[in-house]
Design brief:
CATH topology of one domain: Amidase signature (AS) enzymes
Order of helices and strands: HHEHEHEHEHEEHEHEHHHHEHHEEH
CATH superfamily of one domain: Amidase signature (AS) domain
Number of strands: 11
Radius of gyration: 21 Å
Bound molecules: glutamine
Distance between the termini: 19 Å
Shape: globular
Number of helices: 15
Strand order of the largest sheet: 1-3-2-4-6-5-10-11-9-7-8
Strand content: 5-15%
Helix content: 25-40%
Structural class: alpha/beta
Length: 492
């Protein structure tokens, strides 16, 4: 039998319906692969019993012809999603052994449709980071290595475990969250597909909050079609999240293969950064050429406030984070370190429970929200945010269907290589992705080429609000032209 872990989600779905293999066999193949790949540190918790139970149920529904759209499909879940009865920590010590008595809406919808949970995936602590190095469970290793080198590389972040697990065939797809790039950047670093939907498309209920006005859940998979399939199950209105939008969920898969002829694609001139590497420049031009060959029209567009996006993001996101993280005080959740009185208990718990990057964000957030500074920082950043959103609206008003940019300024870097002396060096990873969160738009990252050292590189397509379908159509054009990217297995 072919190795069941190397199938695409689409092929696995077909194989299950055709009864070429059972859901239990498919799940067992993944559980065995996970066991051999522990060196990647992608999973922080494996849930084999739950997986086998769900797989057996899927086999019954398939036999009865009552299978849901994801029946028997094994998935990994970012540890930011609350899962009933299964430890959920956001990869922070402060949540300790927190076992939620409730399920996030997004994961509930995946189980409703028959998917199987293999385990919980590593991420940067509270999703703050671009390399998965801030996790309390230690860094995740990228399955990709530079040609001729065995140096361990980061998978990107914050959804590093999700990206690494999908790229290493440790699940057929995974959930992620994206506040400033945490789906698109790791997808690009590991040669897979990831989409951040429009703000409000997926419910945030039951997902550990980082920056509530920016956070959005989305899927990772190895093909554009597979992400479209997952997205249909994850999206939808949820009265429990007041920012979730009540619009029908389209059949995203139907957008695959739809013609892109005549579509206007914008190339934003402000994304051509000083000192941009030749490799990224070439990749971007290549992507534009592929879309042109498929009949799209490429035009230069301007997003003049791009240069303010990163600084404004690093005011807004920490401000919201400092407020969201106030609830971790040693009383309600997980870890507690006692003190002489309640104030000291709070202090001791927070001092011991949060890692250095999370503390930095809380300090920045508290500072920009404090009396006397609020107008100068937080209010001004909100105004910049409005201007960034307007830049996109102006471009879309010219009839542009989507915008093409690089996903990241470079390929994956080594563990421990960046951000030690200056955190801004790490923050710069998100230069092409944060604008999309600030404007609430959908963005997809699709693998498109390799750098000089053999590492995958991705392109990003940014769409109009709630027009994920166009991103899937265009993304698949790039995928068809670029082919698939598979890391050489060195960990077994
Ligand atoms: N890297 C960005 C940050 O650290 C974005 C993270 C995310 O999207 N969750 O804030």
């Amino acid at each position: 039998m072919t190795d069941l872990t190397s199938l695409t989600l689409t092929d696995a779905r077909e194989g299950l319906v055709q009864k070429s293999f059972t859901a239990l066999e498919l799940t067992d193949a993944h559980l065995a692969a996970m066991e051999k790949a522990r060196v990647l540190n992608a999973y922080v918790l494996e849930t084999p019993e739950q997986a086998r139970t769900q797989a057996r149920v899927a086999d019954v529904t398939i036999a009865k012809g009552e299978a849901g759209p994801l029946a028997g499909i094994p998935l990994g879940i970012k540890d930011l999603f609350a899962t009933t009865g299964v430890r959920t920590t956001a990869c922070s010590k402060i949540l300790g052994n927190f076992i939620p008595p409730y399920e996030s809406t997004v994961t509930a919808q995946l189980w409703r449709d028959g998917a199987v949970m293999l385990g919980k995936l590593n991420n940067d602590e509270f999703a703050m980071g671009s390399s998965n190095e801030t996790s309390a469970f230690g860094p995740v290793v990228n399955p990709w290595r530079r040609d001729g080198s065995d140096a361990k590389l980061v998978p990107g972040g914050s959804s590093g475990g999700s990206a690494s697990a999908v790229a290493a065939n440790l699940c057929l797809g995974a959930t992620g969250t994206d506040t400033g790039g945490s789906i698109r950047q790791p997808a690009a670093f590991t040669g897979i597909v990831g989409i951040k939907p429009t703000y409000g498309r997926c419910s945030r209920w039951g997902i550990v909050a980082f920056a509530s006005s920016l956070d959005q859940a989305g899927p990772f998979a190895r093909t554009v079609r597979d992400t479209a399939i997952l997205m249909r199950s994850m999206a939808g209105h949820d009265p429990k999240d007041t920012t979730s939008v009540d619009r029908p969920v389209p059949d995203y898969e139907a957008a695959i293969g739809r013609s892109v002829k005549g579509m206007k694609i914008g190339i934003p001139k402000e994304y051509r950064l000083d000192g941009m590497s030749n490799e990224i420049e070439k990749l971007w031009t290549q992507g534009a050429d592929w879309l042109k060959a498929a009949g799209a029209e490429l035009i230069e567009v301007s997003l003049p406030h791009t240069k303010y996006a990163l600084p404004a993001y690093y005011v807004v996101a920490p401000a919201e984070a400092s407020s969201n993280l106030a609830r971790y005080d040693g009383v309600r959740y997980g870890a507690r370190v006692n003190g002489k009185n309640i104030a000291e208990m709070y202090e001791n718990t927070r001092a011991a429970g949060f890692g250095p990057e999370v503390k930095r964000r809380i300090m920045i957030g508290t500072y920009v929200l404090s009396a006397g500074y609020y107008d100068a920082y937080y209010l001004r950043a909100q105004k910049v945010r409005t201007l960034i959103k307007k830049d996109f609206e102006d471009v879309f008003a010219q009839g542009v269907s989507a915008i093409l940019t690089p996903a990241t300024p470079s390929a994956a870097f080594g563990i421990g290589e960046k951000g030690k002396a200056d955190p801004v060096e790490m923050y710069l990873n998100d230069i092409f992705t944060v604008t999309v969160n600030m404007a609430g738009l959908p963005g997809i990252a699709v693998p498109a080429g390799r750098d000089g050292q053999g590492l995958p590189l991705g392109l990003q397509l940014i769409g109009r609000p709630f027009d994920e379908e166009t991103l899937f159509s265009l993304g698949e054009v790039i995928e068809q032209a670029a082919g698939h990217f598979t890391a050489k297995k060195w960990w077994v």
